[in-house]
Structures are given as structure tokens and as C-alpha cells.
Input
Amino acid sequence: MTKPRSRRGGGRPTIADVARKAGVGAITVSRALREPGRVSEDLRRQIQAAVDELGYVPDPNARALASARAEVFGVLVPSLTNNVFAEVVRGIYDSLSDSPFRIQIGNTHYSGLEEERLLQVFGSQRPAALIVAGIDQTPGARRLLENAGCPVVQVMETGPDPVDMMVGFSHLDGGRTATEHLLQAGYRKIGFIGARMDPRSQRRLAGYRAAMEAAGLFDPRLITTTPVPSSVSLGRELFRDALAKMPVLDGVFCNNDDIALGVLFECHRASLDVPKQIGIVGFNDLDMMQVSFPSITSVRTHRYEIGTRSVGMALAAIAGNPPEQRIVDLGFELVRRESTAR
Amino acid sequence: MTKPRSRRGGGRPTIADVARKAGVGAITVSRALREPGRVSEDLRRQIQAAVDELGYVPDPNARALASARAEVFGVLVPSLTNNVFAEVVRGIYDSLSDSPFRIQIGNTHYSGLEEERLLQVFGSQRPAALIVAGIDQTPGARRLLENAGCPVVQVMETGPDPVDMMVGFSHLDGGRTATEHLLQAGYRKIGFIGARMDPRSQRRLAGYRAAMEAAGLFDPRLITTTPVPSSVSLGRELFRDALAKMPVLDGVFCNNDDIALGVLFECHRASLDVPKQIGIVGFNDLDMMQVSFPSITSVRTHRYEIGTRSVGMALAAIAGNPPEQRIVDLGFELVRRESTAR
DNA sequence: CAGACAAATGGTAGCGCTACCATCCCTATG
DNA sequence: CATAGGGATGGTAGCGCTACCATTTGTCTG
Output
């Protein structure tokens, strides 16, 4: 007769099986796995042997239930295909790959309501930390973050009023820097082209506007935007619209690099010389900016580092020593290339 | 005196709180939430009111522990930034957004060992389904998939021996079709350029080779590959290498669209006329292929659909009616554009 | 050498939920 | 009108793990 195995448990070894095999109490196995320092060398070895032999893997659900804390990082991003967030997420994954923490990604589709819903779902798991993109949470989302009972890192942007911690940079400064560069290069009728005008895009636009106004060159007809998601083909279309509206255009600051690439291709098609007739500046500095012909000036942002840094701050907070500096500005760099060299 | 609240539970309402407020048993609340049809209209309304009032959200950990089944889809992809997988993942997210299922993504970094490790971790959660990229699992990974006790969908490729279900297409046929198109357009010295030669890239190369051999034009010196991850700048470099090795090159089939774009830019720089002197074909048909100047012929693949379809099959299997057809070939389409029109 | 104290180990009692098995009540049947 | 059968509801007993509080042992102090 086999011993009466649990009906439900699917036959996987449990901590009790390991304890029996190692001849110790279950709690000691638990400790050996979580706080090896508190178990004697001898027992630790015996337990490890039993774990290996049985192929025991702790059940994270049971662990979470018993300790009222799941080893999960909740991550909220507005898009999964946008290269910008993909890089941040990659940084997060790489930073957590050797830790016991799992990652749960939520896609808000740029919707505040969806963000609230996902925070509700995430909250029910009692995550170890939350990393959310952006600083413009709805009041409801903000309340959920404040009551999450875990470290929270807002990423992509910096701002004055963090829920807990922040890692990012100033999109407004980025937009201004890009525009000032075009001005310094001698361009005058500089357009702004932007798709998916999320809050960060809006602030880049504000930076553009500030620079243009300071130069006394601002004209609202220079701005061409759409709420449609960004793409290279959209960049082409928007640039055509912009040119139709303002044929005198001699430069464009693009909301992002996809748009900039689309603009460049349209210039080729229309036989507009870049940088002589049109100057182009992108945003984010994707790899292809340095390869294109002509290569495209862009504002380099540190997306992967935003991911790694946010994890580092959250881990520190979990360990009980939250970072001194709760707001980390990783800055950006203007990378000058052929598209604005005239 | 307040009633002695649990020390550990952080104060969130539990199913017992809802039951008390609604004046029913806890199990009835549980049923009302999971199988509304089995609870009378009246009670259902009362319970819903109590849930809303208390802001009750079920604890997924407790649920998973009690039912020995977590409402989680495990997803294993080799890269998070590669647009191809990002699209698949987006399809998966969109298909599951209205379901109770959460998604857990693992990044294998193209490593079989890492894949095994992640399957081990995922398995400990008893996921509702597993979706894994590729069909070349290590023997260990394959065993873990077979013993996962849940539906498994292998995606991106089709092959003869599914663990359970498959959704994808034939990369070999895709490579052959692309190459045959170049041959039909009159190109003869057709090179293959590929980065990150994962199993799918290898099969595209095999398709290229088959077509070239059938035409009596195969020459191993036409092949330029590297294990380095793909990028636009790498495409440019590899093309330069290829030209240096074989100056007679008159066409290239690129492993993917990033490479193809790099090749196009290098042609611009070197003043090589596309398509007259050099024909270019990409793979995947990203949006930018249609916009570039000249536009680039590519093999369109149905990445988003791979994601949605794999979820559909898994959900059907979970519901007890696994699809008749366990292997779904979504095919591909050659999209002819300017880069091969001479 | 008693007493204090720390380190190592274990027992017990849940964490919040659902599987399983009652129980109850109502309707249909002969 | 007794009985069977089905639908609605509830009680009990865990799921696998860890927090909390012993208990045991060894070591150091005065």
C-alpha cells in the first residue's frame, strides 16, 4: 500500500517530504532555503542533498500566502512593442534574473483606467515592488500606489512629487535641447512632428515651444501631431502634412526616432537635401540613427539604465535601506550627426 | 474593542468578510465569483454589493494554493527587444486582457539552459498554460513541457513533433520563397546575410541554400553570418564584409528587416543603385519596409496572430475542447517592392 | 558553578481560498 | 402522499508554506 498521497497536490514533493528525507523539521528546511546563515553547516548540506534528490522547488503561491508577500515585481508600461519601453523592461529583467523575484508586466495601452485596473490586480498579489512608467497617474492610481505597501518606482520621467522613488530624465529639457541645436545650426522654420501625444511627448513639445518662443520664432502652424500610435510610415505622412501646411519648413524636431526615419525617407523621395534643405532631429537615439544615410541627430536616452536603476533602488528599499536620493535624473545626450550638419 | 484582526493579513478584506456582510457562507461567495450560474440571482446580487462595498479582490495566491492551479500563462521568449517577439507577446496580452489569466514572461536569452531553469520556475506555479517560442527545446526542457500538466503551445515555427500544440510557419519555405523571388527577378550572385543565427535563422538559410542549389548557383562564399545579435548597424557592417569577400554580389536575402535596412543604407552610402545593382529582400515585413526609399521587398509574417492564435488554442484546451488541428501553419506572404523591381 | 544569554532547531497555528461531501428544500413522479 | 432527484447552499478540511513562540543546547559571566 502506498501512503495516502494528497488528492490535490499533483504529486510534487513538498517541504515536508524534504524535511522527512533530511530528518529535520519542515521549518528548518524553510530556513535553510531562505536564510542559510541561520542553519548549521551540517544540516544545510543534508537538506540541500534532499532537495536535489527530490527535485524540490518551493511553491511560490504557498510561500506568498504564508508570508503575506509575493516575490513579484509588478511592472506597468503603456506599450509592449514600443522599443523605448522594451529596453526598460529588458533592463528590469536582466537586473532581476539572479534574484528570486518574478516579474509581472501589465500593458496599460496608454489608458489611465486600465492602469487603475491593473494596479488593483497587482495589488491583490502583494508584490514586493512596483515599477510604473510615467508620473501622470490618475488620482485613483496614485492612491493605489501610495497604499501598495511596497516600494514604488516611477520611471521614464522625473517630476516634483514622487509617490516614493523616481528614475528618469526631463523630457522638457530634452525637447528644448534638440530644438536649440537646430536653431544654433541655423534652421529657422523648425517644425515639431509628433505621434501618440502621451504626457512625455507633450513635455517634449513644451520644450520645443519654449526654445522657439525664446528665439522669437514660434508659430503654432509649425506643429503637426496626431494621437495615432507612432510608426515610420506615420512619420512620412505627418511630414507631408507639415510641408503642405508650411512649405517654408527648413527643419523638424521629431517626437521620436521612428518619425524621424519616416521624415528622412520622405525627404529622399521628394529629393529634399538633408541637411541642406531640411534638418532633422530625432529622440531616443535608436541604433539605426547612426547608420542611416545621412545619419540622424538624436537625443540619446538611457532606457536600459532606467530599468536597471529602478530595480536597484527597489531592491535597496526592500532590503531596508532606501536610497538617500529618491529622485534620480539620468539625463540625456544630444548626439550630433549628419542630418543637422550644414 | 475592535475584533482581533489578523496580524499578518495587512487588513485587506477576505472572502470571509464578504460572506459575513452578504449573510452567506464563504463558499457561496467563492462560487458566485467563479461560477455565477450556480448561484441564485438574489444571492449573486447581494454578494456583488458586498464585494463592491468592501473593495474585495480575491487573493490569487490563496486561490492557486487551494485549487492547485494558478491562473497564469507562462510565456517563454528568447528576447524582449526583438520586435518579432514583442509583437507575439502583444498578441498574447491583448487576447488575455479580458480573462482572469495573468501572464508571466520569461526571457531565455536564446539559451537552452536558461529555458530549462525558467520552465522549472514556471512549473512550480502550476500555470494554466505554457507558450514557448521555438521547437528546438533541449531534452530536459522538452521533458519539463511534457510533464507540465497543462496545455503547451510552441510558437513561431511549425514542425513534425509537437509537445502538444504548435502555431507558426515554415522558416525554410520563407527563406526559399525570398530567394526564388530574387532569382526570378534576374539576380544571380545572391548573398545571404544573417545575424544571431538561431534555429529559425538557420532554417531560413537552409531555404536560401535549397533555392540556390536548385538554380545551380550556390556558393558558400555568398553566405555571411554572425552570432552577434541583429541590428541595423550590424546589417551595414555585414554587407560591407560580404561585398569585400564577393564584389560580384548583385542581391542579398537578409535574415531580417533590421539587417535589410542596414544594407540599404550602406548601398546609399556606397552609391550602389537599388534595385539596379543590388536587389534586397528582408524578412518579417516591419512597417518601415514599405516606407523606406526605395521600399524593401520582404516576407511578411503574422506575428501578432501567432500570439492571439496560440492563446485561443490554449484557452480551448483549458476549457476541455482542445482544437482538432494541433499544428497551425499561419504561412507568410512575399511582399514585392521597389528593392527587387528591375 | 548558578544564572544569563545566544544560537540552533522544532511545534503549532494559521495565511485565504476551494475541493469534497453533506444538507436542505423544492418539484416531479407513480 | 411517499419517494426520488436535482438545484442551491453550507461545513469541514486541507493546499504548502512561514510567523510566532517555544525548547534545547552550549557558552560565557561573575
